[in-house]
Amino acid sequence: VNVASNQGFRGELRIDEPMSEHTSWRLGGPADHYFIPADLADLQHYLSTLERDAELLWIGLGSNLLIRDGGFRGHVIAPFAGLNRLELLEQDEVYVECGVSCAKVARFCQKRDLGNADFFAGIPGTVGGALAMNAGAFGGETWQSVTALTMINRAGVLTERNPDEFEVAYREVHHREDEWFAAANFRFARRAKDEPSNLRQLLQQRNQSQPIGQPSCGSVFRNPEGRFAARLIEEAGLKGLQFGNVQVSAKHANFIISNPNSRAAEVEALIAHIQKTVLERFDIALQREVHITGETL
Ligand SMILES: Cc1cc2nc3c(=O)[nH]c(=O)nc-3n(C[C@H](O)[C@H](O)[C@H](O)COP(=O)(O)OP(=O)(O)OC[C@H]3O[C@@H](n4cnc5c(N)ncnc54)[C@H](O)[C@@H]3O)c2cc1C
């Protein structure tokens, strides 16, 4: 149900929205409020009307997010498609709003011979999610190319920030609580005229090693220093393990696959089982990459 128009918003406000429709695991109970802003000004307006202590959850394409079966008591902000400005500022600098998909940025840059944006093609999320996760693929990482950030706070006020104001690590970024990514500027190196784009080849390689097309969240765990999480899980004998209605992928052991009967609680239980088994076997505590939020049933 869209109840936004009678409250003065141009975007769409849905009540009791099933989050299973917005996450790549296809899991998660209902969100009390789910807002799809029409544009940045509309989002600023929406945020400015919320109670000061309202719970907020930002979602991109839900490709790294486990929302529990009881759903989310608060406001989910879903800028995908709404916050969709993507512009070439100068020869090699690009302004992107958080709701643009990474695949779109990769295509946009490929057409303009901007080379090191290719890695974005491997990330099935939005630019907002990529900034929050420092997503990376094919040897490239999101924050390597960031030159400026536009942050938005819970009152809807925008602030420009420099990348050095953020603590950025492997698949992890610390930003001020109560501030989120509205947009960013990236500077991408220009590709030499005779240097071909190898995007297609990179994507083919990835399709061979990952269970693409089955519901997952990509890699569940970060690689521990000097080790591969997938290898550890495989060596612990867990590759392909069926665990209730969820499974450790038989193709890539760091992926957990769901099906239409799965519950988020089963994914969480399998994550704990993998962590326990790998700890016992190798004395290594696997750290999650995937974010988990929401209420249990
Ligand atoms: C098949 C598959 C392959 C994958 N391969 C890779 C890979 O190679 N490399 C890689 O790094 N990741 C990979 N991932 C994981 C995922 O795509 C990335 O982490 C991606 O950056 C998440 O983006 P999203 O828009 O889906 O974010 P979401 O999953 O929607 O959100 C992730 C987190 O970011 C927060 N967030 C979202 N938007 C904002 C915002 N605007 N401001 C502040 N916080 C925000 C959310 O609250 C949440 O905590 C893969 C996932 C899948 C399903």
Total E-strand runs: 18
| Helix content percent band | 10-25%
Mean pLDDT: 94
- General form: globular
What series of H and E elements makes up the topology? EEHEEEEEHHEEEEEEEHHEEEHE
Bound molecules: flavin-adenine dinucleotide
Strand content: 25-35%
Which class best fits the helix and strand makeup?
alpha+beta
Q: Give the oligomer, counting copies of the same chain as homo and different chains as hetero.
A: single chain
Low-confidence stretches: none
Q: How large, in whole angstroms, is the Cα Rg?
A: 20 Å
Query: Please, how many helices?
Result: 6
Widest beta sheet: strand line-up: 6-7-14-10-11
Major sheet attributes: 5 strands, antiparallel
Cα distance, first to last residue?
Answer: 24 Å
Detailed description of the structure:
- It contains 6 helices and 18 strands.
- A hairpin with a 7-residue loop joins strand 16 and strand 17.
- The strands form 6 sheets. The chain has a 5-stranded antiparallel β-sheet, sandwiched between helices. A 4-stranded mixed β-sheet has the order 1-2-5-3, with no helix packed on it.
- The mean pLDDT is 94.
- It is of the alpha+beta class.
- The radius of gyration is 20 Å and the shape is globular.
- The structure holds flavin-adenine dinucleotide (FAD).
- The site of flavin-adenine dinucleotide has 32 residues, from strand 3, helix 3, strand 8 and strand 14.
